[in-house]
Please model this.
Amino acid sequence: MYNFDQLLILFSALLFLVVVFSFINEKTIKLPYEIGLVVFGFIFVVLYIIGRNLNLVHIPIEFLNLYREFDFTDFLFKGVLCFMLFSGASRIEFGDFKADKFLIGSMAVIGTLVSTVVYGLLFFGLGYLIHVNITFLEACILGAIVAPTDPISAMSILAKAGLPKRIGLIIEGEALFNDGVAVAIFATLITALKLSTDSVSVMSFTWGLTTEILGAVAVGFVVSFLLFEVFKRSNDNFIKIFTSILTVMLSYLICEYLVFSGPIAAVICGLYYATAIAGLQRNNHICMTEELRDLFYSFWSVVDNLLNGILFLLVGVLLLNIKNINTLSVGMIFIIAIGSIVFNTIARLAGVYASMIFNKNPPKSKGMPNHRFITFMTWAGLKGGLCLALIMGTSISLATPTYNLFLVATYAIVLFTTVVQGLSVGKGYIWLSGNGSKVKPQKKNVKVAGSAVK
Model:
């Protein structure tokens, strides 16, 4: 358990690295903010490991112990994820999903399930070929970890890739909702691993997944409805901001207590506030002033960017969490990393294709044929901190050699999709759509939700 001084030291160090790496990136290679933090964080860790082995670098053991005791899973799931999801969703109205609601829903549920199974099969086969002792259930757990597209990556990186608004909305919508599905699948498989595979039936799995999602939706709606009445009736702008913070915190805590999906509830809260605020503005309600609108979106933009910076830095330095690195040879790391990236692409392709089969109204008006749209959505499936938080949560459930393999696999996927796919997804859309003209990047600003996406 940290005391206040330890927390201050840890977060001061993290914020110091965020500022330094962001400044260096801004003045040198000028990568997007989040990608730059991942790249420089990774370089920092590699240089540290080399310097430590050559006895050239020494970091005080007290600080290293603080970092190793840091619970990344708790930090993301019980600390910052709800605020980041609320911030991203608060720029999108419910009505913005109307045209593609079935596609987004099928990708979030069917796509995640198919990707989990396909990846599990491929990784289990790789383990058999290279004589690594993993079970099919363990391989499917890894499949659930890397199946969801990360909402934080989607909202922060893809928004700057210059994609058309409707395309961006489909990607963000899938990313906002499929994390709850993936977490439910992951939790069910971990329970099966701890007990026995016979303890989980298809019926119990389906029931658990359904109740977790629908319960979260209900909690998000009820809490948002009640507290937005306070927001609407208060004359103090700061009380309104505090009310929005309380809304997402209270929804998340209730879901934690009732074992519902806290992330889904946070998304519903954000969408509710976006829709309600836009409605007040359209009706010229006396409580919705220009000052309040700017204050609300400026506040949540600052929160979002600050937490994004810390999160993506942690993504870059998580290689420090490998336990007893001697359990992995260089050749094994290389095989697992390359194989994981290839398998992730295949599994993502299978998930998107399956979603399109079950979708009765495929998006034919995206400037590209369906097969090209499937290819693009495969490449746009970025992974991020959500995947790493899930793999960190297996450190107790899995044997150390298996955990190390899975951490390398997950890290390779996150690093590749964030950097390589994140930098090329905009150009990929232009190439696949046959549009040679450059698309103007969408700025992540403080626009009111109703005017931000259409």
